[in-house]
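Technical annex B. To support the medicinal chemistry partners, we prepared a structural model of the target in complex with iron/sulfur cluster, based solely on the information shown next.
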Amino acid sequence: MKLIIECVKNVLKKPFTQKYPEERLEIPSWLRGNYVYDKEKCVYCGLCARYCPSNAITVNREKKEWCVDIGKYLFCEQCAEVCPTKCLVLGMEFELVAVGKGKFVFRG
Ligand code: SF4
Ligand code: SF4
């Protein structure tokens, strides 16, 4: 009997899950989403690449090239913390979907 009561209670409860994407959670302000990079402010010092634990960033100072592979991304924010010009921050975008690994490589 106890089990039946518990089952009925759970059937009548509001579900814990949400019907994404129709229903969306409120995004917390501390979210570490996709990177936001400002090429104009970048000095190509390479600190972001040096501190990235997954080697997701490559920097070529001579050619002034900055590249990130989101497929390797950990969303740890270490790159943004060490960036001296704050041209690299983690933004609020988190819906990252692509077909093929190459689509996750971005060049700045
Ligand atoms: S740490 Fe900042 S300024 Fe230096 S290369 Fe990376 S993004 Fe550019
Ligand atoms: S958030 Fe972490 S994993 Fe992603 S590029 Fe920055 S340091 Fe690397």
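Notes passed to the chemistry partners:
The radius of gyration is 21 Å.
The chain has a mean pLDDT of 93.
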